[in-house]
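Journal club prep, notes for RB
We'll compare a predicted complex against what the paper describes. Inputs for the zinc ion case:
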Amino acid sequence: MGVNEIIFDERCTNCNKNLHGRYYCDLWGRKYCAGCGSIDESCRTCGSPIVTVEYPDHRRYCQRCEHESIKSSRRIDGELLQTIRRVMERRGFHIYPDEIKIKLYKDRRNLSDKTHVVGIASHQRFSDKIEIKLLVGGNPLISTMNTLSHEVGHCWAYQHSSGEYFDQPLSEAIADFFSLTVLSNLSNIPTSQEKFVDHSIESLKENTDASTIKNIFMEMGHPTLINLLKRELKGKAWCAIPLKHNRSSDRVNVRIREIER
Ligand SMILES: [Zn+2]
Ligand SMILES: [Zn+2]
Ligand SMILES: [Zn+2]
């Protein structure tokens, strides 16, 4: 065997064929040959072309995403929400959990008619609570954390705005800033989900509004940032935070990654 000879024996997760030329990789790091990877309908969470679970609302997932998804309300209410609070409160963002009610939905049709929506935070005028609706099933730890942090960010914005004025694009920017901060500061991430973290942080950074808020935070520290946000949420500051109004909900879903070799 010559010194320069490269041994390449990676195989397709699905059909075990040797991978040549163009192949595909999902967020779990599983690789697929061009034949298996060209299927259009891929797992909503990781992009795997092999979907085995289909929900009545037509969401489709691979077996692994479905298996690793977080469905227990005790885990979401307790562990995940507590982690978000811990990370954000260290940065001066106080969240009042008694005012937040989290409801889990198994069917997207009861949550929203928009296909990309996985979470909603809305203010309940009568009970004065903020309700977070979260779609469960098919979303592993990191995806659930990403959505929940985003919705908790909306709760913080609601809690600090005045009733008559509410800046929705600013609220979206704050929500994505929450996701960005929480995901960047997670410890004990399961090794299998590290790619989900990297992918989520990467796409949150592409949202320049979340990055704008993060930059103000890095430059001025949290008391200044929080004062600016509160004043702007109440309509008392004029363009203190230069947003480009990227809405996170317009971001495209995970697509399977094509790799040229
Ligand atoms: Zn294959
Ligand atoms: Zn998947
Ligand atoms: Zn949002």
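Talking point for the session: The helical segments are 34-37, 63-68, 73-89, 141-159, 168-184, 194-206, 208-233.
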